[in-house]
Design goal:
six-stranded antiparallel beta sheet; two-stranded antiparallel sheet
Length: 138
């Protein structure tokens, strides 16, 4: 199974996990970053963030060095299952999701209080997307 497909499956297994702001452990709850970290961990990839890292709703970034060290590369074009998407989910809000087949995503939904799988909302814009690099690529 390709690593990207495995990542999409790992994210799907987390559907139903409670939402918790700054949550990083599926046992106690996840936010959108926690969902990505936990899904990557499930496929043997560690996304290490600096100890002082604090995401902001309006100006969300993930340190480039952390992405590179985890084997994630920026991608453009068609989404593929397992892509990690940074989206603009509202006028002043950004959010992370993991792409699934058929224009679906898994994301930590604060309003519903849990990780959900849903159709990618048409009003959301993709700001950046990353994909696990195939073996042998930097």
């Amino acid at each position: 199974m390709a690593l990207s497909h495995a990542l999409a499956c790992a994210a799907q297994r987390l559907v139903g996990t409670p939402f918790r702001l700054q949550g990083r452990d599926p046992a106690t709850g996840l936010d959108c970053i926690g969902l990505v970290i936990a899904s990557l961990h499930s496929v043997g990839v560690e996304l290490e963030l600096p100890a002082d890292y604090r995401p902001r709703r309006r100006s969300f970034t993930i340190p480039t060095l952390s992405l590179h060290a985890a084997g994630l590369i920026q991608c453009t074009g068609m989404r593929a299952a397992g892509d990690i998407l940074l989206v603009r989910s509202g006028p002043v809000q950004v959010h992370l999701a993991i792409a699934l087949p058929d224009n679906r995503i898994v994301h930590a939904h604060a309003g519903l209080g849990r990780v959900v799988s849903s159709t990618f909302p048409a009003e959301w814009a993709i700001i950046h997307a990353w994909r696990l690099a195939p073996d042998g690529e930097p």
